[in-house]
Queue: 2 jobs
Job 1
Amino acid sequence: MGISVTISGESAIRKRLDAMRRQLGGEETVVNAGLWDEGQETKSGTPVPEYAYYNNYGTPKIPARAFMKFAWEEEKPELVAYARYALAAKGTLQDCLMVIGQNLAAQIRRQILANLQPDNADATKRHKAPGLPTLIDTKTMLNSVTFKISGGEQ
């Protein structure tokens, strides 16, 4: 479960990224931020990406708390600024994607910590430490958020 970033539009950034892509052989390079199945499980034995999916989209028993969508919507305007900064510093495509990936993963973590509503059910609250945000219990999901860069030369 993750978010893919594609920068579009005719601009100096787009032209610079296209030139970098041509230097890398034309293969598309993509940054994804989110949660992947790397063997981590919740305390109930559910794989972390599956658990994140349930919390993001909801189930009959778990209300949707769209932390991935909110992270993307809040971070999208900043991603262009991060890309501009990395490119202005004469960074490589890899540098640019690293900055974007790090910041998008950080925003996903901020959304997990944001105490998204609706509030936890009473039964859930009884099993959690008092005062924890709705999406935090053991911090396994929070600590599993990362980013990956794929395609092109790494």
Note: Residues 1 and 53 are 7 Å apart (CA to CA).
Job 2
Amino acid sequence: MANFLIDENQETLELELRKIETSDPVHADIYNALFQKLINNDAFLERLADKMIRQAMISHVLDSNNAGMVLGADVGPKITTITDALQRTLDVLDTNDAYLKQEMDATNRAVNALRNDKTITIPAFTQSAAPYTADIEVQHLKTTDAIELYAGMIKSDSELTVAQKAEKIKIRRKYLNMIDNAECNTDGILTVTSYSKKPATEFAVWLRGCSAEEK
């Protein structure tokens, strides 16, 4: 018995479906034409859903604290990794539940690593002369993480006035500009270095790109 051929090139949803009349003969050609349209519509919707999932995953990565939608040089390959993993997940959706869970977990971890922002405190440097350096313990941070620091509001700022919030952020940005390098050479440790000036005191910043906790 032959199966219906799927039209992989259908680009729109066919909304018109012939209505069966009482005068129609009971013949396979009548019903097959209707079934063919319905099946092609289902196939089109599946392709559309796959495309929307891909776009949503990319938007999910880009929209976190990135209103300008600016991509760092390291982000593009990470997005490709995520979408490739997602495609493999979709390919086995109906055939292998164990593999599906593994792929979805890997995809979620990759997305979380790109979006996982947490506040850290950069302590006052103890060195009397440059270079100034400090090691900060950061839970779940890995040497493979693509990290960056940025200044912004933190939870404790919520009680401040607008003017006080603005001044806080201004100071954090000033101090952050004195940090010349931030890297993770050992899992769980962020090393920050200043080769010239050092901040007058400790200050809070946001760390982006730290790995999320694996569940």
Note: The CA atoms of residues 27 and 77 lie 54 Å apart.
